[in-house]
Design brief:
CATH class of the largest domain: Mainly Alpha
Radius of gyration: 28 Å
Distance between the termini: 36 Å
Mean pLDDT: 94
Number of strands: 40
Strand content: 25-35%
Low-confidence stretches: 1-41
Largest sheet: 10 strands, antiparallel
Shape: globular
CATH architecture of the largest domain: Alpha/alpha barrel
CATH topology of the largest domain: Glycosyltransferase
Domain Glycosyl-hydrolase family 116 catalytic region: 492-770
Strand order of the largest sheet: 1-9-10-11-12-20-16-15-14-18
Structural class: alpha+beta
Protein name: Glycosyl-hydrolase family 116 catalytic region domain-containing protein
Domain Glycosyl-hydrolase family 116 N-terminal: 71-384
């Protein structure tokens, strides 16, 4: 075998032919917790320590005015957007297939855009960052509690105005809301969520919101507690006409539940065309209690009479008349006792479509005929759906990493439960960049979004195969970067897609995905190779990129990304036995790395080398310090690949970003460099996209291109990408500080914590935040090779974190003391087959592997402080089983 192939074998060792030692680069150790790289400017020691402390769940309070902007998505993934407000009421209700741009299409004034001037800002430019949306209620929904204590009756709506204190625990996917009034004899707690189960995209994609209430009688006398929920019928919200249609509320129910189906119908044949409207459908309000009392027509406002027992089978109203359903559950509580009341709201609006896109209808319409059918399924499977969702929440937050970090790195996956993301009836995943803005599941944006491929890998595998390697693939291997909505590839999207393909292969249980798609994957990789016009390993073909321009020359962040992609392509070639192509890829990688380090490194950071003919007459980053300059190396860490760039030069580049681009207060910078969009404001910290350390007059080549505004912005997806890379390289304090800056920008006192904004709301690139969790764990997984690796970047002596693999998820724990290390993988859900495990421990002497009381025969090797263990026979863990490894040195 040739030298090039041997190097690839040593690097990955995942050929099915026999080599089993997997060499993964050790995570960097550039600094320790004390902050070896000084923050600029230096933070105080207490603040720095708080970055690493476990802390507690972020809890927002009414008394601190922190509830008004909260909008946690609590509908199923790819089912529209329903927000949970800070006081427990549901709002926004973007479920009617309007395909609007932004959660609230609007234009606001940014008075600080330019000193002395105001600038109009649209939804896609950050309107909700300047002026956060709140209280958008196209339909009336709410809950109320009635208490009877002896002869006294107390009625309390569950809204912010009615309670002295309300707390909101921001632990996506399940929020906990506590209604606090010391004068009442009961405590009331709400858990609100939609079923969310990693690896189960179907049951996580149900159009339903669950409202689970817990009532405890803390007093000394019995209490009659009644919960009443109501929901206004707004089916066909936008298209129903007074003279043609009418709304109906009809009693509905099944085993274990009672409710009301809220629908719309035509008065005669002339109105039947309504069924084709995007907002045609129905909703259902129910309680999971066969003793529930229903009201098909509830009169508001709430009073004691509202809680009286009465029932009707159907109510009909004209379109201009309000029609509200009610469901009521009563419990008798003795002192010290408690009860749980489960309510749910489901919806069914299947008429989804987009112009010029191959797909229509909603995926949930394959299984359900209406919202009542959704309710019946959820009730029948409630124990499993709610149990697995609660188990995931408990597993995710059962970690030694800081609470705030676990929240911020995960909560952006809630973007899937907004109208950024959809799933057609065919099963195809389709998404905007942000809500209603920039179509086509854009490759150069979605390639940053690490969360989906790790939590719902089947969605990503299908998108790679169905869209990127299918609908969007050109004859020469180029991938249209917006699918059928585009006619061009984007070079960064192309490279990122090849890297995602390798991730999707890793997050599979076997190699069928890779082998089935290898011819197309090879073409996609060859396309990248062909963009190197002068054959120096540095991509130099002018092509679209994520900053919405065509750049000429040899650009560090693009060439590095291409090198990483070709490396991934070469590894996949080896796994399929295509050794000749693996050698071609390896030659490109070695040449590209060598030339990138010699030609594009200026002694401090990596730059953009201008085209030899055009020079700086066209837009580019040139000698500026660009946020993505070593993005290819960042991607390599996500996949467990060996280095593609020299460690010291890469660290120097990251230090330059910290020195020049990160600012505790971006205010002075954006005031001096106007033109960008408001994704960070004065008084807030963040990392600027591009800075000009050498004070060049025209640092970006041109002076009047509209894209120049991007260079002066803080876009959180890019910031998360850098944070994940810093974490992998040992710049732990910097990684945490940068992530915390984003977290603080989205504090509920300022704006919605669940809505990271770029080009519109709930922007996909922000799901890069999950990558920081991946590198904090030093997690690498390769399902077909039955391989897993953990190398925590912090808290190595006592570390605990969740993990998700191709078919199962659970908890990893690591304890290191003296010359002994204990490593455990406890599976909580699904299954996990392993033959190779890798942990960090120097100079191992003995390794003992056990599953339960059974010791498993194994051998091990050590390289660079990493111990790779090979079981004589693969083992499969199932729920509640633990693999226990003891390493002594």
């Amino acid at each position: 075998m040739g030298l090039a192939r041997r190097r690839f074998l040593k690097n990955i060792g995942l050929t099915m032919a026999g080599a089993w030692m997997i060499r993964i680069p050790a995570l960097g150790r550039a600094i320790d917790q004390s902050g070896g790289l000084l923050l600029a400017p230096q933070r105080d020691a207490a603040w720095l320590a708080s970055l690493f402390e476990r802390g507690q769940a972020t809890t927002y309070l009414k008394t601190k005015n922190e509830l008004q902007y909260i909008g946690m998505p609590v509908g199923g993934i790819m089912c529209g957007t329903v927000y949970l407000g800070g006081d427990g009421r549901l709002w926004l209700w973007d479920i009617f297939n309007q395909n609007q741009e932004g959660i609230e299409p609007k234009e606001v004034e940014w008075k600080e855009a330019v000193p002395g001037q105001a600038k109009k800002v649209r939804s896609r430019d950050g309107a909700c960052y300047i002026q956060p949306s709140k209280n958008i209620r196209p339909l009336d929904q709410g809950m109320a509690l009635q208490l009877k204590i002896g002869q006294e009756t107390i009625i309390r709506p569950l809204d912010e105005a009615s309670w002295p204190e309300i707390s909101f625990e921001a632990t996506y996917p399940i929020a906990t809301i506590r209604y606090v009034d010391p004068a009442l004899p009961v405590t009331l707690t709400l858990e609100a969520f939609s079923p969310f189960i990693p690896l189960n995209e179907d049951d996580s994609g149900l159009p339903v919101t669950l409202l689970s209430f817990h009532i405890h009688n803390k007093g000394k006398v019995p209490v009659e507690a009644t919960l009443l929920g109501w929901l206004e019928n707004k089916a066909a919200l936008h298209h129903a006409k007074e003279n043609l249609h009418e709304r109906t509320n009809t009693a509905a129910g099944g085993k274990g539940w009672k409710g009301v189906l809220a629908a719309v119908r035509a008065k005669d044949a002339a109105g039947a065309a309504l069924q084709q409207s995007p907002d045609y459908g129905n909703l259902c309000l129910a309680a999971f209690d066969e003793k529930a009392v229903i009201h098909t027509q509830l009169e508001l406002p709430i009073s004691a009479a509202t809680f009286s027992r009465r029932r009707s089978e159907q109510s009909v109203r004209n379109i201009n008349q309000k029609l509200t359903a009610g469901v009521m559950v009563k419990h008798w509580l003795l002192p010290g006792k408690d009860t749980r009341c489960d309510f749910a709201i489901s919806w069914y609006f299947p008429n989804l479509s987009f112009k010029d896109i191959q797909g229509k209808g909603r995926y949930y319409a394959n299984q359900f005929a209406d919202a009542a059918a959704v309710m019946g399924y959820v009730r029948h499977h409630h124990t499993r759906l709610a149990g697995d969702s609660r188990l995931w929440k408990a597993t995710w937050y059962d970690a030694t990493l800081p609470w705030w970090l676990m929240e911020r790195t995960f909560m952006n996956i809630s973007t899937l439960a907004t109208t950024t993301a959809h799933r057609f009836q065919s099963g195809r995943f389709y998404a905007w960049e942000g809500v209603g803005a920039c179509e086509g599941t854009c490759t150069h944006v979605w390639q940053y979004a690490q969360a989906v491929g790790r939590i719902f890998p089947a969605l990503e595998r299908d998108t790679r195969q169905r869209v990127d390697l299918g609908i969007a693939m050109m004859p020469d291997g180029g991938i249209l970067f917006r699918g059928e909505a585009e006619k061009r590839p984007a070079i960064d999207g192309q490279a990122g897609t090849v890297l995602r393909i390798y991730r999707e292969h890793q997050m599979s249980t076997d190699d069928r995905f890779l082998r089935q798609n290898w011819p197309q994957i090879k073409k996609a990789t060859q396309f990248i190779l062909h963009q190197d016009r002068n054959g120096d390993g540095l991509e130099d073909t002018p092509m679209e990129n994520t900053l919405d321009a065509i750049w000429d020359g040899e650009i560090a962040w693009i060439t590095g990304l291409c090198i990483a992609a070709v490396k991934a392509g070469g590894i996949m070639a080896l796994e399929t036995g295509d050794t000749d192509f693996a050698d071609i890829c390896n030659d490109y990688v070695e040449k590209g790395r060598r030339n990138m380090e010699s030609q594009l490194y200026n002694g401090e950071y990596f730059i953009h080398q201008p085209d030899k003919v055009k020079g700086r007459s066209v837009i580019g980053s040139y000698n500026t310090c660009h946020i993505d300059q070593v993005y290819g190396q960042s991607w390599a860490f996500q996949l467990g690949m060996d280095r593609i760039l020299d460690k010291e030069k890469t660290l120097s580049a990251l230090r330059a970003l910290w020195k020049y681009n990160f600012m505790q207060d971006v205010g002075p910078y954006i005031a001096a460099h106007p033109g960008g969009r408001p994704y960070a404001l004065a008084g807030e910290g963040g990392m600027i996209m591009n800075t000009n350390p050498y004070k060049e007059e025209f640092p970006f080549g041109v002076k009047d291109a509209w894209q120049l505004g991007y260079f002066n912005e803080c876009m959180s997806g890019f910031e998360h990408q850098v944070a994940s890379h810093m974490m992998a390289e040992g710049m732990t304090t910097e990684a945490l500080t940068l992530t915390r800056a984003v977290h603080d920008r989205y504090h509920a006192a300022k704006r919605n914590p669940f809505n990271e904004i770029e080009c519109s709301d709930h922007y996909a690139r922000a799901m890069a935040s999950y990558g920081t969790f991946v590198t904090a764990c030093g997690f690498v997984f390769h399902g077909p090779a039955q391989y897993i690796r953990f190398a925590p970047a912090l808290q190595r002596e006592n570390f605990k974190a969740p993990f998700v693999t191709a078919a199962g998820w659970g908890t990893y724990t690591q304890q290191q003391q003296g010359h002994r290390g204990e490593y455990q993988l406890m599976l909580k859900h699904g299954s996990l087959s392993l033959r190779l495990c890798c942990f960090e421990q120097a100079n191992p002497d003995t390794v003992v592997v056990k599953m339960g009381n059974r010791q498993l025969p194994a051998t091990f090797v050590e390289e660079d402080g990493q111990v790779t263990i090979r079981l004589d026979e693969a083992v499969t863990l199932h729920k509640d089983e633990t693999l226990h490894i003891t390493i002594t040195s």
